[in-house]
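Consider the following assembly input.
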Amino acid sequence: MFTTDILSQVVINGLSLSAIYILVALGFTLLFGIMKVVNFSHGAFAMLGGYALFISYGSYKLPYIIALFGSAFTVALISLIFEFLVFKWFYQKMFQSMIGLMGLNMAIVYASVMIWDISERSIPSPDQSILTFGELSIPMDRLWIMSVTLVVLGLFWYFVTYSRQGLAMRAASQDLEIAAAQGINPNRIYKLAFFIAIFMTALAGGLYAQTYALSPFMGERPLMVAFIVVILGGMGSIPGAALGGLILGLGESFLSTFYGGAVSSFVSFGSVVILLILRPWGLLGKPE
Amino acid sequence: MIKAIQNNTESSSQATEMSPRKFTSWQVLLGLTFLILLLIWPQFTTNKFYFTMGTMIALSVIGASSLNLIIRTGHISLAHAAFMGVAAYTCVLSQIYFHINFALACALGCSMSAFLALILGPILLRLTGKYFVLVTFMVGEIIRLVFINWQSLTGGSNGIQEIPRGLDLFKNPTSFYYFSLLISFLCIVFVRRILSSDLGRAIDSLREVESLAECSGIPVSKIKISMFVIACFLVGFQGILQVYLVGYIDPGSFNSEASLNMVVMNVIGGMYHLSGPILGSIFITTLPEFLRGYVDFQRVIFGVVLIVVMAALPGGLMGILFKLKVFLLKALHLEVKNK
């Protein structure tokens, strides 16, 4: 059962799952870390990303890379309207944001049911071929997911560590008032962080919809994943989101291959509950 | 410790006499009118639809007001519907396998849910704030997964189609309505009694400043756990009656969305007043019926309502009413009481 052949396949599947999970969770943790908003409408933005990719790549047949980044960019740009109409009211209000954004989630999901009906669609894969290295065989679409994610994560890391705006974002997440006293405009930082978070979520949503299926309700799973990953890694912690995404992706791929989907969900939920009780601030977070 | 509690009881019982917790006469009048209306409207209609609606509202009031008991201790549980499901499954399964009568099975179901709450409560209630919300969300999901995956017992995601007969009065929509009204009335009275007693005062204090409450000799975790257990016991009635209203068990009705709905009822109505969840459940249960035929659009409206309420009116409907009252009193040049 545990041959190298199967195990390597499990690891590759796990890594591509982790890539999507990390992207989803990074957006979530960014919104939480800087604005203290628990984004219950995260799945809805992932779903919008899926539809944007469906339209640009599935219907209009744009080149894959342009379609992928373009659709995520468009969704993030359009979502700034939601930032102006909805999110603005909930910054720094953790509890109100939870319920209010559940409302936003409901509104977006059912509005897209009205636009696109509830039938499931599939987005064509960019490349069906399989790459073989000796015994190792890697499906090309998985490789796409991993490389796109790596590029985005790299850019994000560079932006946060080396650019002035990234520095301002880090400062705002540590202490907003002091940051504002240093001349950082919180509203601009909020808009920037919101844009980046939604960009990554929409990108992840496109990749997710391509791997599984696209429907207005597909956002539930990414939302749940974002929850689990962020709790695993620690709320608001960026390296925590990366670590949590890796653990969840690999663990889920391993467990669901060998023991079935039910066991894998039980284990992931169960371990999160145990972690929450013993170490509520997560693996890499800081206790409050 | 005990002495401190006794002292505390004495001092707060003195305060009760002066407190605004007693009903004022116009509140009693309003409540009685409302109750009489609820009792007599079935005489003027024969439409089955209205009876079902009335029953549904009465049932959701049970869930919302019992959840209010947990919310008052400062915790927001997203596993409430899952506990409701535990009671419903236990009730139906015990009737199928042990052939016991309905009343006993009902008691068994609610006790089972309370028992589960008693086991989980001490562990879960160590957490506060957002962590409690998240952990109950996960626990609710785990319970739902058990319902779906334990196929030999629970029938998997199809649920249980053939449920035992239950009481005779369940066949008649009118008597079902009166029965659920009675249960939900008893439930509200029970919750109200707890919240307006010295215990309720202790609950309020531990919500506001937990450490200070503990220093004053209030057994904080004991109270929290017992409120959690009582609330889960009460919500069992909703689960069981709901199953008999629909006629079969559907695991989908015990998911996190159902729990969320209960929280939303509390939030829209106003959390820190018992009339809040009652108003909220009337609002949330009837709103979809006004927008029938536009099922998707209704959900969109619903979402927008939630956003607006949370952004602009954190006190909920009760908050609006209270502001209106203050405004009216000021306009009439009367003195503003209670705050």
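The interface with chain A takes residues 76, 123-124, 126-127, 129-131, 133-135, 137-139, 141-142, 145, 149, 260, 263-264, 267, 296-297, 299-300, 302-307, 309-312, 314 of chain B (CB under 8 Å). Ask yourself how this observation constrains the way the partners meet.
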